[in-house]
Amino acid sequence: MKLDVIGDVHGCINELIELFQLLGYQKKGEIFIHPHNRLPVFVGDITDRGPDSLGVIELVYNMVMKHRVARYVPGNHCNKLYRYFLGNNIQIQHGLETTVDEYLSFNQRGQKMIKHQFMTLYEESPLYLQLSEVNTIVAHAGIKEAYLGRTDKKVRSFVLYGDVTGAVHADGRPIRGDWAQEYQGENWIVYGHTPVLEPRIVNHTINIDTGCVFGNKLTAFRMPEKETVSVTSKQPFVSEKFTNF
C-alpha cells in the first residue's frame, strides 16, 4: 500500500486538481486514479471558506463512496455541515456560510443530490483511519496514543476539534495544547486542522494543513516515502490565520 494523505481542502478544488496532477494522478471520467494504485486519503475539512465546496464534495464522494479508490475522515467543518443537513439549529458562520450559500443556489434536485452525497460520505466513514500496512494513522486534528482504538465522546471531540484547553486568543481562536510533543508511538499520525506555513513534524506526527484556503498551499504527505508535496494556493494570503508553535 502507498498513501497520499491530502490536507484540508476547504473548497479549493482547483488546487486539489493541481495537486493530484503533480502527484501523478490521471483523470478517469469523474475521478482521479494513480497509475501505480496509490491511495489518496482526505484528512477532513473538505468544505467551507473556499470557492467550490460542493464541487469538492462531489469529487470526494465519487472517489470514496462510488468508486472506492480513496478514503476520507471527517473534520470539524464536516461535522458542522452534517449537523446543518440534519436540520439542527446551528450558527452559520466561520466558513459554513460559504457552503450554505452554494447549496441554496442549487435547484431542489441539486440540493437533494449534494446533501445525500455528503451525508452518506460522513456517515459511512470512520472517525480516524489506522492503516497498519504503512504504519500510518490519519485523524483530522490528531489523536493521542492513549485514545487509539476508541471512538467515545472524548476521543471524538479531540479528533474533530483538537487539543483545546478552553482558553482563547484575543481574536477568539482557541488556545490549543501541543499533544504532538508527548506522542511516543511508532506509527505516523498525519493530521491537519490547525493552519501552519510549512508541514510541521514533531516525533512521528505531521500537520499538513498548510492553509490553502488562506493563501498558502495545499499539501500531501506520501507514505511510505515520508515526503511532502505541495501546490501554491490561488486564494488571498491571510497571515493571521497561521499558528506558530
Short description:
The protein has helices at 13-22, 53-66, 76-86, 96-105, 108-123, 153-161, and strands at 3-6, 26-28, 31-33, 39-42, 71-72, 129-131, 136-138, 164-168, 174-176, 188-191, 200-202, 205-207, 217-223, 227-232.
Structural summary, described in words:
Helix 2 links the parallel strand 4 (39-42) and strand 5 (71-72). The strands form four sheets. The protein has a five-stranded mixed sheet, covered by helices on one side. Strands 6-7-10-12-11 form a five-stranded mixed sheet, with no helix packed on it. It has helices at residues 13-22, 53-66, 76-86, 96-105, 108-123, 153-161; strands at 3-6, 26-28, 31-33, 39-42, 71-72, 129-131, 136-138, 164-168, 174-176, 188-191, 200-202, 205-207, 217-223, 227-232. The protein starts with a strand and ends in a 13-residue tail after the last strand. Helix 2 packs across helix 5 and helix 3 packs across helix 5 (108-123). It is globular, with a radius of gyration of 17 Å. The protein contains six helices and 14 strands. With 245 residues, the protein is an alpha/beta fold. Helix content is 29%, strand content 22%.
Helix and strand layout, with pairings?
Elements: E1 3-6, H1 13-22, E2 26-28, E3 31-33, E4 39-42, H2 53-66, E5 71-72, H3 76-86, H4 96-105, H5 108-123, E6 129-131, E7 136-138, H6 153-161, E8 164-168, E9 174-176, E10 188-191, E11 200-202, E12 205-207, E13 217-223, E14 227-232
Parallel strand pairs: 1-4, 4-5, 7-10, 10-12
Antiparallel strand pairs: 1-13, 2-3, 6-7, 8-9, 11-12, 13-14
